[in-house]
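User: I'll paste a sequence; please echo it back and then give the predicted structure.

Assistant: Echoing your sequence first, then the prediction.
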Amino acid sequence: GGSNEIACAIAVNDAADKVPSIEQYAMRAFADALESVPMALAENSGFAPFSTLADVKSRQLKENNPRLGIDCMDNGQNDMKEQHVIETLIGKKQQIMLATQLVRMILKIDDVRSPGEGE
């Protein structure tokens, strides 16, 4: 799994390369956040998360195959279509939009109060 997130992270990093302003750092942070899903899948499957993600990411780029993900079942096949691991576009889109909205709401909090403060 995680092939969608890896492909999206690659696309966001490519788009960040074209942004000359400081916004590119926010874009790269978003791409890093997307990569946390396949990292967690790799780690929970007993693989070394960084090297596994790096291998799959490089294969996606080299083979131009966005369906390559983490082989959690250790079947020897990283193509998620071949393993019948399918996610709907609408479901994935809603997940990313909801997570993004949540982060934006958290960032809007400008007044943090500690317990007992101002009483």
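The two ends are 50 Å apart (CA to CA). The CA atoms of residues 15 and 27 lie 8 Å apart.
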